[in-house]
Design brief:
By secondary structure, this protein is α/β, with parallel strands linked by helices. Helix content is about 40%, strand content about 15%.
């Protein structure tokens, strides 16, 4: 009898898990559907698999609006994909690029080096890749009759982090960054902001080597910064400069001012703890009174932001307004 109870309990849990997975997949499909546009020559053209540097991963897709005489076509929105710096690719951004190109803007979605066993990128090295990508995108756009004046960065998760870092750090970018669209992007590489106590899902802490010791913290800083960090560096504060240099949060200041940012996060995010977004929001609030930013809190969502369709529409409306206001 006891075995039967355990068996049916296991089946119930398995069934519930499958239903939850199917439900989340359906919700994510609904999320993506909100950005769908019928793509044809009257909307624009796509140049796929263009290269911005030699080596693996360095490709981008660029989408050009049909009307090159529209002043909007002088502005670029560049999407950077998520995937925990280990997966994902430029094609993850095609849907969103087509949406913004349908509004008249040049858009692009890029690859960057992933940590795959053969490559060991850092946050800083990926930031350098973004700079190379911007240069190549600008040149390809010009070659096709679309001279670009400025840009916005847009990214999800790891791509959100890189988009924030590029916009906040590269204040003399080849194309000036006018605003940022951030979905669930990490903002800090202080190891204390990645612990289970900070809100990270415990198995994820184990995956990145955070075990509560200074050795574990050193592993995280070394992995993402590339500096040879040790437990002693954590204890004496030497490591602070290394995680600051790769943390978007560190570059939030008023001199010179960072561009406006639209921050989106899920209340139930356990992959990038909500603490990251709230630290960013708090620091943005402390800038001078003329600085503008917006926050969209997805009250029923986790990391993927896929359980609040009303908030997706709010994001689209605000993103359109940012384009109209800051470009």
């Amino acid at each position: 009898m006891k075995i039967k109870v355990i068996f049916f309990a296991a089946i119930s849990i398995l069934f519930s898990g499958c239903c939850a997975y199917i439900d989340s997949t359906n919700r994510e499909n609904e999320f993506r559907k909100a950005f769908f546009v019928e793509w044809n020559d009257s909307v624009g053209s796509a140049l796929m698999d263009r290269r911005y540097a030699e080596g693996d991963y360095h490709l981008f897709n660029i989408f050009l609006p049909a009307d090159r005489t529209n002043p909007k076509s002088r502005h670029l929105i560049m999407f950077t994909h998520g995937g925990g710096w280990t997966q994902g690719n430029r094609n993850d951004g095609n849907l969103y690029c087509k949406y913004f190109t349908s509004k008249g803007y040049v858009t692009a979605t890029i690859d960057y080096t992933l940590s795959d066993g053969s490559h060991d990128p850092t946050i800083s090295s990926i930031n350098e890749e973004l700079k190379q990508a911007v240069s190549a995108i600008k040149n390809v756009a010009a070659e096709n009759g679309y001279p670009l004046d400025d840009m916005a960065t847009f990214g999800f998760s790891a791509g959100g982090c890189q988009s924030l870092l590029y916009a906040f750090k590269e204040k003399t970018s080849l194309l000036p960054v006018k605003f940022v669209l951030d979905w669930s992007g990490p903002t800090s590489f202080n190891p204390d902001d990645w612990t289970a106590q900070a809100g990270t899902y415990p198995p994820l802490c184990e995956m990145v080597g955070l075990d509560g010791t200074n050795e574990g913290k050193a592993r995280l800083v070394k992995k993402f910064s590339g500096h040879p960090c040790t437990a002693e560096d954590i204890a004496n504060g030497t490591a602070n400069q290394w995680w600051n240099e790769i943390s978007p949060l560190h570059y939030v200041d008023s001199s010179p001012r960072i561009p406006p940012v639209l921050v989106c996060y899920g209340v139930y995010d356990r992959i990038v703890p909500v603490k990251h977004q709230r630290l960013l929001i708090e620091k943005l609030q402390n800038l001078d009174s003329t600085y503008h930013f917006d926050v969209i809190e997805f009250k029923n969502s986790g990391h993927a932001l896929c359980c609040d369709n009303d908030k997706v529409n709010e994001f689209k409306a605000l993103a359109d307004r940012y384009c109209e206001t800051y470009f």
